[in-house]
Design brief:
This protein is 54% helix and 18% strand. With 174 residues, it is of the alpha+beta class. A five-stranded mixed β-sheet has the order 1-2-5-3-4. This is OmpA family protein.
């Protein structure tokens, strides 16, 4: 009888403990998603006119149209671009430490070599300004894809404009 009573008590304790851990895990997951939603909303609210979307598990992609960022065939940032990037840096600094990959893209109007070079230079320009505004350059990498990852048809002026872009993939540092 004592053995049966002990087994019942042990099972009750184990069942309750499992249920508590499950509830704790649920509330932890909810608070993480709440934090992620707040971060996502911060980017969307502070960067009007910029495309902001979720990527992977907890990353955010911010896409700037290169027509806004750079004059044609240039990697020099416009004054409007500098203002937009400053706003982005302000949001990033409030979110805590992050890793950033800056991706440069181009349309197909130049040679593949030129497009790769230009997209590299544009990504580096954005990084240089972000670092000058206070972000840690060690947590920022750049890559130029040239014309290899189009998001629109390169046969139309509108499509080419959409393909000339800079994307930042922002993920929290664990």
């Amino acid at each position: 009888m004592k053995v049966q009573l002990c087994l019942i008590v042990l099972l009750a304790v184990a069942f309750t403990a499992c249920k508590s851990k499950k509830n704790l895990a649920k509330s932890s997951a909810n608070s993480v998603s709440t934090i992620e939603n707040m971060q996502y909303d911060a980017y969307r609210n502070k960067l009007p006119g910029t495309q902001v979307e979720r990527v992977d598990k907890n990353g955010i992609r911010v896409t700037f149209d290169s027509e806004i960022l750079f004059p044609t065939n240039s990697s020099y940032l416009t004054d409007k671009a500098k203002e937009d990037i400053k706003n982005l840096v302000d949001v990033i600094r409030k979110q805590g430490p992050v890793k950033i990959v800056i991706e440069g893209h181009s349309d197909k109007t130049g040679t593949p070599e030129y497009n790769k070079w230009l997209s590299d230079k544009r990504a580096v320009s954005v990084k240089a300004l972000a670092v000058a505004l206070g972000l840690n350059g060690d947590n920022i990498s750049t890559v130029g894809y040239g014309d290899t990852k189009p998001v629109a048809d390169n046969r139309t002026p509108e499509g080419r404009a959409k393909n000339r872009r800079v994307e930042l993939i922002i993920t929290p540092v664990s």
